[in-house]
TrEMBL record:
Domain CSC1/OSCA1-like N-terminal transmembrane: 5-165
Keyword annotations of the record: Calcium, Ion channel, Ion transport, Membrane, Transmembrane, Transmembrane helix, Transport
InterPro entries assigned to the protein according to its UniProt record, in alphabetical order: Csc1-like, CSC1/OSCA1-like_7TM, CSC1/OSCA1-like_cyt, CSC1/OSCA1-like_N
Residue ranges, compositional bias (Basic and acidic residues): 723-736
Protein name stated in the entry: CSC1-like protein RXW8
CSC1/OSCA1-like 7TM region domain boundaries: 353-630
Taxonomic source organism: Brassica napus (Rape)
Annotated localization: Membrane
Keyword Ion transport: yes
Start-end of Polar residues biased regions: 705-719
Length: 776
């Protein structure tokens, strides 16, 4: 690929980024878009609408980039959770290692590649990208020691940084377990595959079993019921209740005719009446009478509660029966994290489901070969023109040729990749995951494998076929074939960094789909006081993308280092966009984690082992490719020094796997026993036992009813979202009003988003309704 095509792709994507970021800096200030860009803060009660008319609202400004470096890690941990901190540390690690890599390779490796052979060099924009790769070196070159030394520096720096990061995050995970408020999952074990006895119910069987074998530690249990029509109706009723939470009871909602926004004809609106108090509601059906025990069927699964954390840990780690397919025990996920639908799946079906999902994922990988091969054909138009003469006319048009070969392939690949995350999430749910965090973790791994296979390996294979190179004939040929193929794809990988990296991050902060949906909803709906919908942070898509660019950076570092500056720009941009501005909640910098996405459940930092293992894989793959190139260039010295480096990297990986990885998969008994003793000494244990049974309720309206009646918060209050107002400095109010047209909740009233607010409580009214209420 020519440098001119790379510059064309870079120019297009830079223009897209500038346009999108400028639009974002304007749209975020518009009061109509507050539920798009500040959904989390509105749900948490941290802001309400403010409608000043000032011209700065319509002027693009970089004010959201002012306080990037002021956020501390503790504030980020408090506001967004451990997973957000781990993700940002992934980005910081990538910035550090690729800064070192870029300095070493651009300063030493790139000049050696460029002047590797005596030749007449053209102007930079007319050169081919292969001139900057290791292919430009002649066989037996004495300068290959530079590449070998750079490989040692990159590997040493990466392993050193990985070790310190792994150690730090392992300590943070232990702190996440010990320093947080008591969690119900620490006392709870999920029991599945309860045997059926015709003489008694599942509940009686379970109670008899644990009373017999765990009489000293067994506390109680909560059965899992079939997800029937009752639960679906209650879920729909809850959504309707939340959608009406901003309507004032003092205003008479009489039917009226208003013109339709589309056809102009009369349409009936507000054709409902809000009851003034609970006494006017329908009597005879109390919520407490609507219990699943009288309407739904028991399933062979239950949440079993124990008196101490250590007792729950022991039960979850041992076999409960001589038949491993019965009485299967696992530590329960957090209440908000439970994936209730999968608890109805019989345990004996899970292994079949895993095989089916594996076959389906592999089949989809092979189906995806078709668009990837077509994309590679676009990048190799010059080679295809020999077989298809009609392409020669396109090649004569220089700008069109540059757009087709430099920009269009990566765009098409990204469009096809939009179908991957939903499908992989469906496969993960089909496997029978018991929690939403496990499902997202499983989807993350699937998307990671899929992305690396199709973007890296399939592009290399299809490009080799188009170039009529020999595909791998034996295992011994793999390093040499990779060494031949990777430099030829360096241009495509660089353009993919532009499109999937730069432009995608600009789209992420812009939130185009949410913006379009908000605009459509406001155009169609006549109710302007809508409720706020929030999103979960897409770790399962962003972590694989981060790791893919890390793989591309490592594998091209000593082979084709021209990609490194562009990757470094991507990581810096990702840090700016995703970092949580916890220092001042009214600053809109990097609001994706804090202001847009809500943290309802998390994995407790379990994404880091995925990042660590994939980084080690990228390093080893880089060393294998370099070994193949050293063999092709007949450098026995460089090849001899590369083999020990591979072995040392594998030893480092094995050490980290034994030293740190178990912390992310198991709970240390020592820590749990100390926590039990501390709770017993402070007298909190009995209070915790009383609250356990009601936490794992399949019908959340039971809890919402109690919360609306004014009961105090439970000991497990850490499951609720923290109040952002506690983190916001008071002096930032005036600045925030000028920046993005919102004002804090100065009255001190808090909005409860977990329950449907009472219609008669004035603190749940919107500002418009309060003004109308005062006028009346």
């Amino acid at each position: 690929m020519e440098i001119a095509a790379l510059l064309t792709s870079a120019g297009i994507n830079i223009s897209i980024c500038i346009v999108l970021l400028s639009l974002y800096s304007v749209l975020r200030k518009q009061p109509a878009n507050y539920c798009v860009y500040f959904g989390r803060r509105l749900v948490c009660g941290g802001a309400r609408r403010y409608d000043p008319f000032w011209y700065e609202r319509f002027v693009p400004s970089p004010s959201w980039l002012v306080k990037t470096w002021e956020t501390s890690e503790d504030e980020l941990l408090t506001a967004a959770g451990l997973d957000a901190v781990v993700f940002l540390r992934m980005v910081i690690f990538s910035i550090r290692i690729f800064f070192i890599t870029a300095v070493v390779c651009i300063a030493f490796v790139l000049p050696v590649n460029y002047y590797g052979q005596p030749r007449m060099h053209k102007e930079i924009h007319l050169e081919s990208s292969e001139v900057f790769t290791i292919e430009n070196l002649k066989e037996g070159s004495k300068w290959l020691w530079v590449h070998c030394l750079a490989l040692y520096i990159i590997t040493s720096a990466a392993c050193l940084l990985l070790y310190f990061e792994y150690r730090t995050i392992a300590k943070m995970r232990l702190g996440h377990i010990t320093s947080s408020a008591p969690k119900p999952s620490q006392f709870t074990v999920l029991i599945r595959a309860i045997p059926w006895h015709p003489e008694q119910s599942y509940s009686d069987t379970l109670s008899k079993y644990f009373t017999n074998y765990y009489s000293s530690s067994y506390l109680s249990h909560q059965m899992v019921y079939h997800n029937g029509i009752i639960q679906r109706l209650l879920h729909d009723a809850e959504r309707v209740c939340l959608s009406l939470k901003h309507v004032s009871p003092e205003i008479s909602c009489k039917p009226s005719l208003t013109p339709c926004n589309f056809c102009g004809g009369p349409t009936a609106t507000n054709s409902f009446h809000i009851l003034s108090n609970e006494g006017d509601s329908v009597k005879g059906m109390e919520l407490g009478e609507l219990t699943v025990t009288t309407t739904e069927q028991e399933r062979p699964a239950a949440f079993v509660f124990f008196k101490t954390r250590y007792d729950a840990l022991v039960v979850s780690e041992v076999l409960q029966s001589s038949n491993p397919m019965l009485w299967v025990s696992d530590l329960a996920p957090e209440p908000h994290d439970v994936y209730w639908r999968n608890l109805n799946i019989p345990y004996r079906q899970l292994w079949i489901r895993r095989i089916v999902t594996l076959v389906g994922a592999v089949a989809f990988m092979f189906v995806f070969l078709i668009p990837v091969t077509f994309i590679q054909g676009l990048t190799q138009l010059e080679q295809l023109s020999h077989a298809f003469p009609f392409l020669r006319g396109i090649l004569k048009k220089k700008f069109i040729n540059q757009v087709i070969t430099g920009y269009l392939p990566s765009v098409i690949l990204i469009l096809f990749f939009y179908a991957v995350p939903p499908l992989m999430m469906y496969f993960s749910a089909l496997e029978g995951c018991i929690s939403r965090s496990i499902r997202k973790n499983s989807a993350c791994i699937k998307i990671l494998y899929f992305t690396i296979w199709n973007v890296f390996f399939v592009n290399i294979l299809s490009g080799s076929v188009i170039r009529q190179l020999n595909v791998f004939s034996s295992v011994r040929d793999i390093p040499a074939q990779l060494a031949r193929a990777v430099p030829t794809q360096a241009g495509f990988f660089t353009t993919y960094c532009f499109t999937s990296g730069w432009a995608s991050l600009a789209c992420e902060i812009m939130q185009p789909m949410a913006l379009i949906w908000n605009l459509a909803a406001k155009s169609i709906s006549t109710n302007k006081d809508e409720s706020y919908e929030t999103l979960r942070f897409p770790y399962h898509t962003e972590i694989p993308r981060l790791l893919l660019f890390g793989l591309l950076g490592f594998t091209n570092s000593v082979i084709a280092p021209l990609i490194l500056p562009f990757l470094l720009i991507y990581f810096f941009l990702a840090y700016l966009i995703y970092k949580n501005q916890a220092h001042d909640l009214l600053d809109t910098l990097n609001l994706q984690i804090l202001n847009v996405y809500i943290t309802k459940y998390e994995s407790g930092g379990k994404y880091w082992p995925i990042f660590h293992n994939t980084t080690i894989f990228s390093l080893i793959l880089t060393q294998i490719i370099a070994l193949g190139f050293f063999g092709l260039k007949l450098s026995t010295v460089a090849s001899g020094f590369t083999i020990p480096l591979i072995l040392l990297t594998l030893l480092f990986s094995e050490y980290c796997r034994n030293r740190f990885a178990p912390i992310f998969h198991k709970h240390p008994a020592q820590v749990l026993i100390d926590m039990d003793r501390a709770d017993e000494m402070t007298g909190k244990m009995e209070e915790l036992h009383k609250k356990l049974h009601s936490v794992y309720s399949q019908i959340p309206l039971h809890l919402q009813k109690s919360s609306s009646n004014g009961e105090s918060s439970t000991p497990f209050s850490n499951q609720e979202l923290p109040d952002p107002e506690k983190l916001k400095p008071e002096e930032g109010d005036a600045i925030a009003k000028e920046l993005w047209g919102f004002q804090g909740n100065e009255s001190g009233q808090e909005h409860d988003t977990k329950s449907c607010p009472s219609a008669s409580s004035p603190e749940h009214l919107t500002p418009k309704m309060i003004e109308l209420h005062k006028l009346n």
